[in-house]
Design goal:
Layout: E1 3-9, E2 12-17, E3 29-37, H1 40-50, H2 60-63, H3 75-91, E4 96-104, E5 114-126, E6 133-143, E7 149-160
Antiparallel strand pairs: 1-2, 3-5, 4-7, 5-6, 6-7
C-alpha cells in the first residue's frame, strides 16, 4: 500500500493513501494486504443485497449435490473483495474507473477461504483530453490461502498527476 503522511499542523499529521499517475511504473507488482477470510454471513448478505437467488450460494442441501459438495461464494463478491483490497494502493486517488475486461474466475471460492490480491501495472499513458490526468491499466489477481488463483481481471483507471487532484480542496 502506498501510504504517506503529511504534516497538517504543528505536531499534527494526516495519513494518505494511493498513487498519483507519476507513481505508477509499467511492470511493477503491488501485493495487497491484509488478506480477507470470507464468512458465511458475508456471502449471504451479498446474495441478499444483490438479489442473487442462485441456490448454490445459500442453500446447503442444494449445494451438497453439486460437483463442489458445498456452497460456493458468489463470484461478484469475490471480484468486489479483490478490487477492495487494491483500492488503498492503486486507486485511492483515481478519479474514475474507465473499464473492466477479461474478468475470469478460474477456481471457486468457499466460505472459510482467505483471499489475497496483487496488481501489476500493464500500461500507463497521459490522457489526451485531460492534461492533469493519466490512464493506468492494471491486472489484479486474487488467490486463496493455498495460492490457487480464484479471480483475475484488468481494470483501467483515470488517475491524476501529482498536484492535479482534488484532495486539498476536500481537506483530505
Amino acid at each position: 500500500m502506498k501510504a504517506a503522511v503529511k504534516e497538517i499542523g504543528s505536531q499534527r499529521y494526516r495519513e494518505t493513501f494511493g498513487r498519483y499517475f507519476d507513481d505508477f511504473a509499467i511492470g511493477d507488482v503491488y501485493e495487497h494486504r491484509p488478506g480477507r477470510t470470507i464468512t458465511e454471513s458475508d456471502n449471504t448478505w451479498f446474495t441478499l443485497l444483490t438479489m442473487n437467488t442462485h441456490p448454490m450460494h445459500f442453500d446447503k442441501e442444494y449445494a451438497k449435490h453439486s460437483e463442489f459438495g458445498k456452497i460456493i461464494v458468489a463470484s461478484p463478491f469475490t471480484v468486489a473483495v479483490i478490487v477492495g483490497m487494491s483500492v488503498t494502493d492503486v486507486s485511492q486517488k483515481a478519479k474514475a474507473n474507465l473499464g473492466w475486461k477479461e474478468i475470469r474466475m478460474p477456481a471457486p471460492v468457499f466460505v472459510g477461504d482467505t483471499l489475497y490480491a496483487s496488481s501489476e501495472v500493464l500500461d500507463k499513458r497521459e490522457s489526451k483530453s485531460r492534461p492533469g490526468d493519466g490512464i493506468v491499466t492494471i491486472k489484479s489477481i486474487g488467490t486463496n490461502q493455498d495460492g490457487t488463483t480464484v479471480c483475475e481481471f484488468e481494470r483501467v483507471m483515470l488517475v491524476p498527476k501529482a498536484g492535479a487532484d482534488f484532495e486539498a480542496a476536500a481537506n483530505y
